[in-house]
Design a protein that fits this description.
Blueprint: E1 2-7, H1 9-15, H2 18-33, E2 38-39, E3 43-47, E4 50-59, E5 64-73, E6 76-85, E7 91-96, H3 98-116, E8 123-127, H4 131-143, E9 148-152, H5 156-170, E10 174-176, H6 180-184, E11 189-192, E12 211-214, H7 227-232, E13 233-238, H8 241-247, H9 249-256, E14 266-267, H10 268-272, E15 285-289, H11 294-311, E16 315-319
Parallel strand pairs: 1-7, 8-9, 8-11, 9-10, 11-12, 12-15, 13-14, 13-15
Antiparallel strand pairs: 1-16, 2-4, 3-4, 4-5, 5-6, 6-7
Helix pairs in contact: 2-3, 2-11, 3-4
Length: 321
């Protein structure tokens, strides 16, 4: 009988600092560039009352393969990561994965910022005030010395509350912008992390030399950026070009209009691994399109299992033969 370790949301939260997620996700991008991972795009299945979404990957460098699956029903989302050993094929872990996904999504933008943002970038403009926005900003603050954060969300009360909470947590000035263009003013790092179906960031607002992390649009019918934002980007990078072609709403219209072609979009892994050049010039605008990929979930999940065993966290059950 094999032994499977179960980790709850509380245990994942206890085990997963942003530093671990950043280190792991950066390594995953490097392995991707070397052809050492297998990653398949998200599959969405309609259920009578919602959706089942499944994302599989194989990451031999951490000894794990598996998938993240999640359901969306009645406005609630439930995540789980299921891991198998690449050596034996046995089930080795089952993890609740809401916090895992939140932190690794932030970490991906952190890695993109590390490699693509100007070294002197110290002001962040963030579009979105939900729980995913928190880890986007946390990851960026881990890779750049930030002096000011500007946030915008459609709900005035919520964006002011978010700004106050973030300021208390990060001990940095956080300004709730009253108009969307104000969040981009003077910001050399921008984040979009919303569920908006229409653009929240317009290219006309983007400062020369800015880097954009577009992390909210992973469905073709949603676009957080207008066409001009993509047009102005000298370098457009995705976590997975294959997955972006299936679900990156930000790029659908620009590709249709001939502003950009899919073969002009680099993968972040190639830049992390030094196979492709990064920022072309100080004044260039760079864009990272983050869809969220399974290889990150599998790798981070496997690292959490290692830590859980070392710290005797989680619960083990007998499972299978």
């Amino acid at each position: 009988m094999g032994r499977v370790r179960l980790l709850t949301e509380a245990e994942v939260t206890q085990l997963l600092p942003m530093s671990l997620a950043l280190e792991t996700v950066e390594s995953v991008f490097r392995w991707q560039a070397a052809g050492q991972t297998v990653n398949k795009p998200r599959v969405r299945l309609r259920a009578p009352k919602g959706l089942l979404q499944v994302m599989p990957a194989v990451v031999p460098e951490v000894g794990a393969m598996g998938l993240k699956a999640y359901t969306v029903i009645a406005g609630r989302v439930r995540f789980v990561v299921l891991l198998f050993s690449t050596e034996t094929g046995e089930v080795i872990g089952i993890l609740e994965a809401d916090r895992l996904g939140q932190v690794r999504t932030g970490a991906a933008s952190g890695v993109a910022t590390k490699y693509l943002a100007r070294p002197d970038a110290d002001v962040v403009g963030c579009y979105g005030t939900g729980y995913q926005a928190e880890t986007q900003i946390e990851a960026i603050c881990a890779v750049r010395k930030i002096r000011r954060i500007q946030v915008y969300g459609r709900d005035p009360e919520r964006r002011h509350r978010f700004a106050r909470a973030l300021e208390d947590r990060l001990k940095l000035p956080v300004v709730a912008a009253e108009r969307p263009e104000e969040a981009a003013r003077g910001a050399l790092i921008l984040v979009t992390i919303t569920n908006s179906k229409t653009p929240v960031l317009h290219g006309a607002w983007v400062e020369p030399g800015a880097h954009i992390n577009a992390a909210g649009s992973n469905a073709l019918e949603r676009a957080e950026l207008d066409v001009e934002a993509v047009r102005r980007a000298a370098l457009v990078v995705a976590d997975s070009r294959e997955q972006a072609q299936i679900e990156c709403g930000d790029l659908v219209e620009p590709v249709k209009q001939g502003v950009i072609a899919w073969d002009r979009i680099d993968e972040l892994g190639d830049i992390v691994a030094g196979k492709r050049p990064g920022r072309p010039s100080p004044e260039a605008i760079t864009l990272f399109e983050s869809q969220g990929v399974a290889m990150q979930d599998v790798a981070v999940g496997a690292r959490l299992l290692e830590l859980a065993r070392a710290r005797s966290l989680g619960r083990e059950i007998e499972f299978g033969v």
